[in-house]
Specification:
Layout: H1 3-30, H2 39-51, E1 65-69, E2 78-83, H3 110-127, E3 135-140, H4 150-155, E4 164-175, E5 179-181, E6 184-187, E7 189-198, E8 202-203, H5 213-224, H6 227-230, E9 238-247, E10 253-254, E11 257-266, H7 269-289, E12 293-300, E13 305-307, H8 309-323, E14 328-330, H9 342-345, E15 350-358, H10 378-396
Helix pairs in contact: 1-3, 1-10, 3-10, 5-7, 8-10
C-alpha cells in the first residue's frame, strides 16, 4: 500500500470511529475517579478492550492494566501509555457531559489521553495484517498524586521487555491540529514539602506574650522565595513555591501552630538535592530566632522528563508526515511542570509530546482549571501521531 493510500485508510478508520470515541471520552469525563480509586474507570476500559477483542490483559492491581498487540517475534516491544485518573476539583463548566461525581473532575485531560490510547489500539489492530509490530498499551492509574502510579506499574511489570515508550498530554495553549515536541529536558522534577511551625498561642491583643506562628510562617514564605533568586545560578531553571498556608481559627486569637506546603522543581540532580537542604537551613534558623520549633517533611516526587533524542527525531518525522510539518511546534524551553512518566524514562528510552486542544469557545482554560475542556477534534490528531509513530518505529527498528 502506498503512502497516500495508507493515510487515507487511517483517516477513514478514524472518521468511522470518531463518534464512538467522543462518547467514550464523555463517559470518562462524566465519571471521574481520583488516583488509586479508578475502579469503575478500569472496569469500563477493560470492557471496551474486550469488546474489540484485545487479549492478554494484565491487571496486576486494583486499578490500571495493560495489554499487548502484535505478534512479530523478531521485533522489539514499544509501549504507549495513558493516565486514567482525575483530579479532586469541582467542575464549573456547563457542558452536558460535566462531572457527575462531586469534587472530582478530569481537569487535566486524562479522559482524552485514555480515549486516544484506546483509539490507537483499535486502529493498529485493523492494520496488524499489513505491518509487523509489537505494542504494549498501558492504562496507568494515579498520575496526579505524589509519587505517582507509574512506580507501581513498573514494579508490577508494565515495562518488562519494553524497548521504548511514548506518551502525550493535552495542551490548551496549542490549537487543535498541532503538537509540540522537544528533545532532552522537557519537564522538571518535583518534590513536595510540608512545614509545621509550633509557636505559643495567645490573645491577639497581647502578641508579646505569644510566639506567633503566622508571623514566623510569613517570614519563612518570603525567605524561601529568595532561594531561587539568590542561591541558585540564574541560568539553571528552578522553582520553589509555597502554595498553602494554614493557621488560626478566629480574629482575636494567635494560634499555636501553622502549616505550610509547597513544591521544589528543577532539572539538575545536584540542584534538586540542594533545594531541600537550603530550605531546611532557612526554616530552622527562622524558627530558632523566634523561639519556635518546627517539623519539616519533604517527599520526593517524579524525576525530570528527559526525552530521548532518537525518539524525538522519530516522532518529529512521523508527525510531520501524517499531520504536516507546519503543525509541528518545536519547543526550545523546558516546562517546570512535572509528570510521573519520568519514572518510565529512568528504565527505557522514551518520548513525551503535547497535543493541541484549543479550538471551540471554552477550550482555552489551562489544565487543572474547574472549567477546563477540550475540542474533541484533537482526538483524531493524537491517534494519528501515535499510529504513525508506531509504524515508523517498526519501519526503522533501530532502538
Amino acid at each position: 500500500m502506498d503512502l497516500k493510500a495508507l493515510k487515507e485508510k487511517i483517516d477513514l478508520q478514524i472518521q468511522t470511529l470518531f463518534d464512538e470515541l467522543v462518547q467514550t471520552r464523555r463517559h470518562l469525563h462524566q465519571n471521574p475517579e481520583i488516583g488509586y480509586q479508578e475502579f469503575q474507570t478500569t472496569a469500563f476500559l477493560i470492557q471496551k478492550c474486550q469488546f474489540y477483542g484485545f487479549k492478554m490483559m494484565t491487571h496486576p492491581g486494583k486499578t490500571g492494566f495493560w495489554f499487548d498487540l502484535g505478534s512479530a517475534s523478531n521485533k522489539p516491544l514499544l509501549a504507549l501509555r495513558a493516565d486514567i485518573d482525575a483530579l479532586p476539583v469541582t467542575e464549573q463548566s456547563s457542558v452536558e457531559y460535566a462531572s457527575k461525581n462531586p469534587g472530582k473532575m478530569h481537569a487535566c485531560g486524562h479522559d482524552v489521553h485514555t480515549t486516544i490510547l484506546l483509539g490507537t489500539a483499535i486502529i493498529l489492530n485493523q492494520l496488524k495484517e499489513l505491518f509487523p509490530f509489537n505494542v504494549r498499551f498501558i492504562f496507568q492509574p494515579a498520575e496526579e498524586p505524589t509519587p505517582g502510579g507509574a512506580i507501581q506499574m513498573i514494579q508490577r511489570g508494565a515495562i518488562e521487555n519494553v524497548t521504548a515508550i511514548l506518551a502525550l498530554h493535552v495542551d490548551s495553549r496549542l490549537p487543535v491540529g498541532k503538537i509540540s515536541i522537544k528533545s532532552g529536558a522537557q519537564m522538571a522534577s518535583t518534590d513536595i514539602f510540608q512545614i509545621k511551625i509550633y509557636g505559643k498561642g495567645g490573645h491577639a491583643a497581647a502578641p508579646h506574650l505569644a510566639i506567633d506562628p503566622i508571623l514566623i510562617g510569613a517570614e519563612i514564605v518570603n525567605s524561601l522565595h529568595h532561594i531561587t533568586s539568590r542561591n541558585v545560578d540564574p541560568v539553571q531553571p528552578a522553582v520553589l513555591t509555597v502554595s498553602r498556608f494554614q493557621a488560626g481559627t478566629t480574629a482575636n486569637v494567635i494560634p499555636g501552630e501553622a502549616e505550610l506546603w509547597g513544591t521544589c522543581r528543577s532539572f539538575q540532580p545536584d540542584l534538586r538535592a540542594y533545594l531541600p537542604i537550603r530550605l531546611k537551613e532557612i526554616v530552622n534558623a527562622i524558627c530558632q530566632g523566634h523561639h519556635a520549633t518546627c517539623e519539616i517533611d519533604i517527599k520526593n516526587g517524579a524525576p525530570p522528563v528527559i526525552n530521548d533524542p532518537r525518539l524525538y527525531q522519530l516522532v518529529d518525522n512521523a508527525a510531520s508526515e501524517i499531520l504536516g510539518a507546519q503543525n509541528i511546534v518545536q519547543v526550545s524551553v523546558p516546562d517546570m511542570g512535572a509528570e510521573d512518566f519520568a519514572y518510565y524514562l529512568e528504565k527505557v528510552p522514551g518520548f513525551f509530546f503535547r497535543l493541541g486542544t484549543k479550538g471551540r469557545p471554552g477550550t482555552d482554560f489551562p489544565i487543572h482549571h474547574p472549567q477546563f475542556d477540550v475540542d474533541e477534534r484533537a482526538i483524531p490528531v493524537g491517534i494519528k501521531a501515535f499510529v504513525w509513530s508506531v509504524l515508523k518505529f517498526f519501519e526503522q527498528d533501530n532502538l
